[in-house]
Specification:
With 766 residues, this protein is mainly alpha-helical. Among the domains are: 98 residues; 147 residues, no CATH class; 99 residues, no CATH class. It is 56% helix and 4% strand. Helix 13 crosses helix 14. The relative contact order is 0.05. InterPro entries: Lines_C, LINES_N, Protein_Lines. This is Protein Lines.
């Protein structure tokens, strides 16, 4: 009889039909039949109810068993065919589902006021007369994990309801929580208590109307001290114990549940002007977590803690301007960054295995032919890398002098570069990394938000170093500038290199940049504005880096593989890291310009990064790299006649042709442009951009990359591609702005892009 009434009540609540009978009637229907076992005290009572699976099961089983809970559609459609003889377990699951559903509807503004009033009356009776909170707490200890999970959700909903509607904290639940958490590790049944508290915090954070600060303080203040004590207790364990080697053990379940709570506390801290100690403990005592990550605990738990660290280190980014107004957050980030860098300096990164099995639909085994097995976990690799980079950013942003941070930064970056090299999985199609600045795009290219956070961190570090250098000396010598440039490349944080490598990875597609600017999920806008401001005053360095890109597939010798002339004996990096930085020799294609016959002669030979000398007065070095040829295709697929103006008749270069007549105008242009060299065998290209002139053809294009004599100049392909990409981006933004389709005011960004375009045209007249 009771089940049929519950079914009818469920259907009425589901479709929004007013409950016509007295509130006491519905209270009696929702009242749980819970009998406490005399074997245990009230706080950790374990109920013995019928269960289809029985025993204590894993968290994974809980998620699977959620299919047993009557869902909205399934329940309403199947009530007609149900047998009225339900077992007690099914009745209780339906009661718990109804309680949670009614709490949600009682707080919804879409429900009529009279109906919400009725639900509130029922809850008051359930709490004061039926003592539903005590019964739900008893049900938390059930051996039936589905009942325990549903009881936790229902209890959290009722506690949250009282906080919001009555501005009071449920004393029964508070007493239970204090006793359970303070009793650990003697009492190990803490997961259910942690679930409930986590659910309450999440419910508060999801509420868009509620004044979160006051209600969070009312909830967490009584638990503040005991939560910090619990943090110390659960993370100070000896995690080499066999209890933590399986993610399905009770000990591991407790730890995973605590990670969820720490994440909720982290999300809630920005709501309070003065956060509580329990919201700061992860920052101030992060060494416990760092030690745990390097222990022999199960890989899943390590991964969860690493992802939590990532959220902590990004807390400053998410809080925005609040960071400057919140001294406690500043203090916490400084403590967090210092602790992370301290363990990184002690080879902590190398102690973390990143070879966890990948997950697949239907199981954990790789399908036949899959080659990802045995590779590093790229998600964790990115997270760890970002944690270290953001810690470096914050630590060094708060340093006063260059000497204070210079040595430490180079040491940290050296370790990070070695860490990347040892874990980045290379495919047969990938080319060997020959420049340290390329690592960033290789590591983060599959995760946009992380990539731009990492790029922004290195850009801010670069700007900090640059500012400190100029503060220390007004006029820097050429050797000092050369040393500075060398160090930025050797440590992998030259901003121009990083930006160009990224553009190369996306084939200079301006629509990709536009997507990043429109998206609210990345910090690309902030990064791009900062970088364009740097580019505006550092244009010559940018041009030099573009020249190096043009020569990297030919006779280019990596900057990071050669020390500056005045630093032959001084090493700022470890020998191992310097060896990593060295370029590998690549196939080279040399183009000789026979001046007397006006012909381009093409030959191919293997080299070891030496510039080939020619008896001709004019010779050009060109590459046959397939990757560089492929990237050129976007330059010749013109979309309009306006773009096609760059073409001219009779100015075509074909790689597969032995001799090609050279137009007199082109020859004259090459001669006039020229190339000068400076400094001890380290030639710096200084030239003007030549437009790419090429007609559509089924043959490969010739990419002229580097000059090998004093009066011959390379075509600056990389510089042309980059500036063209930025111009296209500027046009796209302007077009969207004119149509009022851009999501924010891009005037400042357009001004910067316009300035860069003017600099490019003034420095490189066409």
């Amino acid at each position: 009889m009771k089940i049929s009434l519950l079914q009818q009540m469920y259907k009425d609540v589901l479709v929004g039909i007013p409950l016509a009978k007295e509130s006491h009637h519905y209270t009696s229907l929702l009242n749980l039949c819970v009998e406490q076992s005399p074997e245990r005290d009230e706080s950790c009572n374990r109920m013995h109810l019928p269960s289809t699976n029985g025993g204590i099961r894993s968290r994974q089983d809980q998620d699977t068993d959620m299919s047993d809970v009557p869902t909205t559609d399934d329940t309403s459609n199947s009530f007609g065919s149900m047998n009225s003889s339900f077992c007690p377990r099914e009745v209780m699951l339906l009661q718990l589902t109804l309680i949670k559903m009614m709490v949600a509807k009682a707080q919804s503004q879409e429900i009529e006021f009279n109906m919400r009033q009725k639900y509130c009356e029922i809850f008051v009776l359930l709490l004061k007369e039926a003592k539903i909170d005590s019964k739900l707490i008893c049900l938390l200890g059930s051996y039936d994990q589905l009942l325990s999970h549903m009881a936790s959700k229902s209890l959290a909903s009722l506690v949250y309801f009282q906080l919001k509607e009555e501005n009071t904290l449920n004393v029964t639940w508070l007493t239970f929580s204090l006793k359970t958490l303070s009793g650990f590790p003697v009492n190990t049944h803490v997961a259910e208590c942690l679930w409930t508290l986590t659910s309450i915090i999440k419910d508060i954070l999801k509420d868009k109307v509620l004044s979160k600060a006051g209600i969070l303080k009312k909830l967490l203040a009584p638990l503040d001290a005991v939560l910090e004590g619990f943090y110390n207790s659960i993370l100070f364990h000896h995690f080499d114990s066999h209890h933590y080697t399986s993610p399905y053990s009770e000990a591991a379940n407790n730890l995973i549940s605590f990670i969820d709570l720490l994440e909720a506390l982290l999300a809630s801290r920005i709501e309070l002007e003065l956060p509580l100690r329990c919201q700061r403990v992860l920052f101030l005592k992060v060494s416990y977590v760092l030690n745990l990550i390097s222990s022999s605990i199960h890989y899943l738990i390590k991964k969860l803690f690493i992802m939590l660290l990532k959220k902590c280190i990004l807390c400053k980014s998410e809080s925005g301007s609040l960071f400057l107004q919140n001294p406690s957050l500043y203090e916490d980030m400084l403590a967090l960054s210092s602790a992370i860098l301290q363990v990184v300096n002690l080879t902590w990164l190398n102690e973390i295995p990143l070879s966890g099995k990948a997950s697949y639909f239907g199981g954990s085994e790789a399908p036949p032919g899959d080659d990802t097995q045995g590779g590093s976990d790229q998600t964790v690799l990115r997270a760890l890398s970002l944690v270290v980079l953001k810690a470096l950013e914050f630590k060094f942003q708060n340093s006063a002098t260059e000497a204070e941070i210079k040595g430490d930064f180079q040491s940290f970056m050296s370790q990070l570069l070695i860490f990347w090299r040892s874990h980045l999985k290379s495919s047969p199609q990938s080319h060997p990394v020959v420049h340290h600045c390329e690592w960033l795009s290789l590591i983060f290219i599959e995760q946009d938000d992380d990539m731009w956070e990492a790029a922004k961190a290195l850009l801010l570090i670069y700007l900090k170093f640059d500012r400190l250098r100029h503060d220390a000396a007004d006029n820097l010598s050429q050797k000092e500038e050369e040393t500075w440039n060398f160090l930025t490349h050797a440590s992998g944080y030259n901003p121009h290199c990083i930006f160009l490598f990224f553009l190369e990875k996306i084939a200079f597609d301006s629509t990709v940049l536009l997507d990043f600017l429109i998206s609210s999920e990345t910090c690309f806008l902030e990064y791009l504005v900062r970088y364009l401001k740097l580019l505006r005053k550092d244009w010559h360095q940018f041009v030099d880096v573009c020249n190096n890109f043009d020569t990297k597939h030919g006779t280019f010798q990596s900057i990071s593989s050669v020390k500056p002339p005045h630093q032959e004996k001084q090493s700022c990096m470890t020998d191992e890291s310097l060896q990593i930085a060295c370029c590998e020799p690549e196939p080279q294609t040399l183009i000789s310009l026979a001046d007397s016959h006006n012909y381009l002669v093409f030959t191919t030979e293997q080299g070891d990064n030496e510039v080939a000398e020619s008896n001709q007065s004019n010779s050009l070095v060109c590459t046959d790299s397939t990757s560089l040829l492929g990237s050129l295709q976007s330059l010749v697929n013109y979309d309009s006649s306006e773009d096609s103006e760059l073409e001219s008749d009779g100015k075509e270069c074909l790689v597969n042709t032995k001799q090609v007549p050279l137009n007199k105008e082109v020859e004259t242009r090459i001669r006039e442009t020229g190339c000068s060299y400076t400094g001890d065998k380290r030639n710096t290209l200084k030239s003007e951009v030549l437009p790419l002139k090429q007609k559509e053809s089924n043959t490969s294009s010739c990419l002229t990359c580097m000059a090998s004599s004093d009066n011959i100049i390379p075509l600056r392909i990389m510089l042309y591609k980059c500036t063209k990409c930025l111009e296209e981006l500027q046009k796209a933004i302007s077009r969207l702005q004119r149509r009022n389709l851009f999501p924010y005011n891009p005037s400042a960004l357009l001004k910067l892009l316009s300035h860069i375009e003017k600099i490019s045209k003034n420095m490189n007249p066409q």
